[in-house]
Amino acid sequence: MTLNSQSGPGPVLSPRELGRALGVSESSVKRWVDDGALAAVKTAGGHRRIALAEAVRFVRRTGAAVRLPAALVGAALPAEVSVAPEDAVAAGAATEALWRAVHEDEPEAARAILLALYVGGWTLAALCDGPVREVMTRVGELWHHDDAGIFIEHRATDMCVHAFAELRALLEPAPAGSPVALGGASPDDPYLLPSLMASLVLAEAGFVDRNLGASTPIAALTHAAARYRPRVLWLTCSVPPASARALEAELASLAAAVAPWRGDVVVGGRGVPPLGPLPARVHRLDSMGELRAFAAGVRASTSA
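Now predict its structure.
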């Protein structure tokens, strides 16, 4: 994998490198390029070069099998890591490998695992609900047993943020005119990852995402809603609110903010308490998988 200024910033692959990753011949990759199925540029010497992001999008768009994911992520993977998303054994092995990388402060290993799983066909929702959620839950439990727990959690968060930034760059750009998704964490919630994960899942679903991050005042969300007119407004809640009634009032305020264009509000997170009847177009979701399915439904209704 190399860098090539003629193809823009970021790593690029030769047809031979991509063919090796996919277990196909170099001539097959060149044929895909020449047929227009795979975008590439040519160097001054006439050699084809494929941007990594384009290669990953091609793999996911066509369902091509990835034989050597390490060749696409630029780093070696633990021997036990398989990229099969429907295999519970493979998912468990990936989770254990990510846990070791986080606990032993190996950011390159953590990055390689998350990127390889995505390249191999995992959705961002599956990554977030599976290995990332499991590992961060274990890290949180260290607070009760290990004085280094806070240090490890902060490092784990930083590793995930960097890996997610790379994954974000691999997503298909949202088409012109796509609906906007806006959100953040509730006012007393300092956690970065849940809102970032919601943003990524919605971006993967084809939304233009606007993430306001941790500890977002409700007034800030309502002002942002007036500017961006989001079709979906999310609120993550990892820290229990002062009361269920307080959260219900916040959700009602957000619902009123997006009502003029019939927007929906979604709330989720381990800190969400039992709630009473929710206002119209306010939805409680319990996983990123549920958010992904909800987003797909909204996109379908928007394009109908």
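The first strand starts at residue 2 and ends at 3.
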